[in-house]
Structure formats: C-alpha cells, structure tokens
Description:
Blueprint: E1 2-3, E2 6-10, E3 15-18, E4 42-45, H1 47-52, E5 60-65, E6 70-80, E7 88-91, H2 92-99, E8 106-111, H3 117-125, E9 130-135, E10 144-150
Parallel strand pairs: 3-7, 4-6
Antiparallel strand pairs: 1-2, 1-5, 4-7, 5-6, 8-10, 9-10
Amino acid sequence: MSRHADAGRGYATALQAMPSSTDLHGFRPPGGGMxxxxxDGVLVDRGVQDSLGVVHAGDQxxxxxxxxxxxxxxxxxxxxxxxxxxxxxxxxxxLNRAVGPVTATSxxxxxxxxxxxxxxxxTLTALLGVAAYRTARPWPASTTSTSAxxxxxxxxxxx
Length: 159
C-alpha cells in the first residue's frame, strides 16, 4: 500500500475482504467501540497514518495486489486499532467492484457450542485444497470461530 501523493513510501500488509455484514470479525476504531466494514474503501490500522502520512479518513492510497494482478486506488474509509496484525480490510462488494470477481482463499466459520469439534476438523481438513485449520477462542461466548485456508490460490493466508 502506498500513498498516492508519495509513491516512495510504502506499507506492506495483507488485504482481508469479507461481506460488510460480517459478525465473525470485529473492527475496533481508535476511539473505542466497534464499527462495520464500509461498502466503499478500506479500513486500515492506525499505524498507517505515520507510515504513509495518511492523516484523515478520505485520503487516497494505492493498493498493489500482486496475487490478483491489480493496482487500485482506494479511499481510506477509517482506521482501526487492533493489537494483533496490521491488515487492511475491505468489503467483498468493494473488492469485486475494484478488480472483478475474486476467489476466496480462506474462510471464517462459526459453529454451535454443541458441535463435534473433532468431526468438524476431520471434515474440513479432508476438503480438497484445505491446507490449514485453526480454532479460535469462542467469540461471542456461545460460538467458536474456525479458519480454514485453501491452497487453490497462491495468496498467503494469515489468521
């Protein structure tokens, strides 16, 4: 990612795209509380503000997406404050408009507390192309999130 006005400065990160209505991941802005994924633009970590000189939501950045073969201009829709990871987040609607239809390379799943976790792990890891499986702590408390990563794309998978 680079600031359009200063292409000499860059910030390497991964773009995570998901439905804007997702509740499998929360997005915490720097002031606290929670926000949702915007239909236009991207949410970025507040560290980008210093790295790229991006000061306000509405500033433009250039996203280079080598695995998709595209470079796009994106508006910073907002900032997030997350202690782990420095991902950029956009909605699937925005990404599909920006580069055309894309193929998912990972999935976030939620299953009921009474689900047989061992059977789910066996079923999911037996699927063609699933290279990794990770169970996260329950969020919210009554559910468990799982990430499964496919090898069908050369995209790096980060959880």
